[in-house]
């Protein structure tokens, strides 16, 4: 009786193996059929594919030339449209893909930034507003910088397999790193654009700066042209809270103000006389120079986030009109 049971069990196991083999053969067969169908569908379309590639390259080149000309001739409208797209395009994908965590953070950031921007664009400008604006955007800049660094390190640790030391799955570690990297870069780009817009409005309202032409006020040696407040610490003295910084044009500013103007506000000229600011001299400390390089990286990413989806959509529209698939 036991022998009969063993034979039945052995026969059942063998039958399961045979079924698995048959299923594997069937799946391979289905894959080969799909592969053959795909080749049959695209057979003879080499010329069409080459035409699509040429359309993509031509569109990228023409779009880049147009964007450069637009930025040079009408920088204000270019920056406003780019900022709007930077703000709205990720929101569309967030709602579509149900990224609710990103949506909550986006709403909080937008609410506080809208309040700060509202304060920066009021006339007359409240004396405490410039400090409030630069503190908020400098805070977001530092948070985005730290978040991007942590995300980059998490991605690199995952690539080197260090996540296994903490018993973390590779896919979980990579998702964590890429998410942090995206948060840091996106909000870093967005806050710099808002900060630049607010810096222009505030400086123009204060009167020591104008985008074109001469300032409407004379700058005293004891007044900071960025915030319009008195400077109480001499350049040669060590300040308790912050120092006073003198540019090569001999105009003096609060250290935090001129750093926010150059790094956060993306300005590389004196707020009063528009003389070129030597960033290497300003940030002589090697630990501070990565902030300058990080800012340059964010400026480059603006194009990818704001305009790349538009260009790709334009290419797809051209292919659709021409009947290319």
Structural class: mainly alpha
What summary fits the major beta sheet?
2 strands, antiparallel
- Order of strands, widest sheet: 1-2
SSE string, helix = H, strand = E? HHHHHHEEHHHH
Average pLDDT, to the nearest integer? 75
**N-to-C span:** 67 Å
Radius of gyration: 29 Å
Q: Count the strands?
A: 2
Strand content: under 5%
List the total number of helices: 10
| Unreliable stretches covering 5 or more consecutive residues | 1-10
Coarse shape: globular
How much helical structure, as a percent, in the residues? 55-70%
Please tell me about this protein's structure.
The chain is mainly alpha-helical. Among the domains are: about 110 residues; about 80 residues, 2-Layer Sandwich (Herpes Virus-1), CATH 3.30.40. It is built from ten helices and two strands. It has a two-stranded antiparallel ribbon with strand order 1-2. Helix 4 packs antiparallel against helix 5 and helix 4 runs parallel beside helix 6. The longest helix has about 40 residues. The termini are far apart. The N terminus is likely disordered.
Label this structure with key terms.
disordered N terminus; globular; Herpes Virus-1; single chain; 325 residues; 70% helix; mainly alpha; two-stranded antiparallel ribbon
């Amino acid at each position: 009786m036991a022998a009969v049971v063993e034979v039945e069990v052995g026969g059942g196991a063998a039958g399961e193996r045979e079924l698995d083999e048959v299923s594997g053969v069937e799946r391979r067969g289905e894959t080969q059929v799909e592969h053959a169908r795909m080749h049959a569908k695209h057979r003879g379309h080499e010329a069409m594919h080459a035409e699509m590639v040429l359309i993509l390259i031509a569109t990228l080149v023409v779009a880049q030339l147009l964007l450069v000309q637009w930025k040079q001739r009408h920088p204000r409208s270019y920056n406003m449209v780019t900022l709007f797209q930077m703000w709205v395009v990720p929101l569309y994908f967030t709602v579509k893909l149900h990224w609710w965590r990103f949506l909550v953070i986006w709403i909080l950031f937008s609410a506080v930034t809208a309040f700060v921007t509202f304060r920066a664009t009021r006339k007359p400008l409240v004396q405490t507003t410039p400090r409030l604006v630069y503190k908020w955007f400098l805070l977001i800049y530092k948070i985005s910088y730290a978040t991007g660094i942590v995300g980059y390190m998490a991605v690199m640790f995952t690539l080197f397999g260090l996540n296994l030391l903490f018993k973390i799955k590779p896919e979980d570690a990579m998702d964590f790193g890429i998410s942090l990297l995206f948060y840091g870069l996106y909000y870093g780009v967005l806050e710099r654009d808002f900060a630049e817009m607010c810096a222009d409005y505030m400086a123009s309202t204060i009167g020591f700066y104008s985008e074109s032409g001469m300032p409407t006020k004379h700058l005293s040696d004891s007044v900071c042209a960025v915030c319009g407040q008195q400077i109480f610490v001499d350049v040669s003295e060590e300040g308790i809270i912050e120092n006073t910084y003198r540019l090569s044009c001999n105009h003096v500013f609060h250290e935090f103000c001129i750093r926010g103007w150059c790094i956060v506000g993306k300005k590389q000229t004196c707020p009063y006389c528009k003389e070129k600011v030597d960033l290497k001299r300003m940030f002589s400390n090697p630990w501070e120079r990565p902030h300058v390089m990080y800012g340059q990286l964010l400026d480059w990413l603006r194009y990818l986030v704001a305009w790349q989806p538009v260009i790709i959509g334009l290419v797809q529209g051209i292919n659709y009109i021409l009947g290319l698939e």
